[in-house]
UniProtKB/TrEMBL annotation:
Superkingdom of this protein's organism: Bacteria
Originating species: Georgenia yuyongxinii
InterPro entries: JetB
Cross-referenced Pfam families: DUF4194
Upper classification of the organism: Bacteria, Bacillati, Actinomycetota, Actinomycetes, Micrococcales
The protein's name: DUF4194 domain-containing protein
Length: 217
């Protein structure tokens, strides 16, 4: 039975909505972003599963596409691509600096290498060390580079792309990063960053942040 199969008590004066309250909360969480997780947002996930098509329809009215991966247990929205290519941009964009993107590529790589076998946990210090090869491309000294990585790490924590575990300094990588960027886009970005490394950081891309859908990532 879907949330629209029976009469609902209005939640406020003038309420004309037809979704159950849990499903409305799931819809609101998707619009707010960045994603809904079966593990971390169990009640929202159950509501989403119960009313998937109704929620998908309401998002479509806003030129938004619902992406649900039952295997990974994650759902998020992205801007719809119309045939005319003139759909309005509804979700906000989150600019990504050079270091943001390097970190994103690294974390997504960890997910891919895991083969989908269970949770992916990374150590903050280990990741910092592995990203140190990009310091010359960032055109900064060690202190400045560490400051930039700290800023990127904090940004990803706020977006729930990195989630603290019970062990100090260990974080779970959100599986949604598997879905946000396709293999072709990831390959293109990775190739560009390898080129920057080969040039020894002659030009820093930090002045040219990339945009990604904030509610996607």
């Amino acid at each position: 039975m879907t949330g629209t199969a029976h009469a609902l008590e209005p939640l406020w004066h003038g309420d004309t909505g037809s979704l159950r309250e849990p499903s409305r909360r799931a819809l609101a969480a998707l619009v707010k972003g960045p994603y809904v997780s079966a593990e971390r947002h169990a009640e929202l996930w159950r509501a989403l599963v119960a009313d998937t098509e109704e929620i998908r329809s309401r998002l479509a009215d806003l030129f938004l596409d619902l992406v649900v991966d039952d295997t990974l247990g994650v759902a998020f929205i992205r801007g719809a691509q119309t045939e005319a290519g003139n759909a309005p941009q509804v979700v906000r964009t989150l600019p990504l600096t050079f270091i943001d993107t390097v970190l994103l590529l690294h974390l997504r790589g960890e997910l891919v290498r895991s083969g989908g076998a269970g949770r992916v946990i990374v150590g903050k210090d280990e990741v910092y060390e592995q990203l140190s090869v990009y310091r010359s491309a960032a055109s900064t000294d060690e202190a400045g580079f560490t400051k930039r990585i700290n800023a990127s790490w904090t940004k990803f924590e706020k977006q729930n792309l990195l989630v603290k575990t019970s062990t100090d300094g260990r974080f779970e990588v959100s599986p949604v990063l598997r879905l946000v960027f396709g293999p072709e886009e990831i390959a293109a970005v990775a190739a560009e960053y390898k080129r920057l490394l080969a040039r020894g950081g002659a030009a820093t891309p930090d002045n040219e942040p990339r945009d990604t859908d904030e509610d996607d990532a």
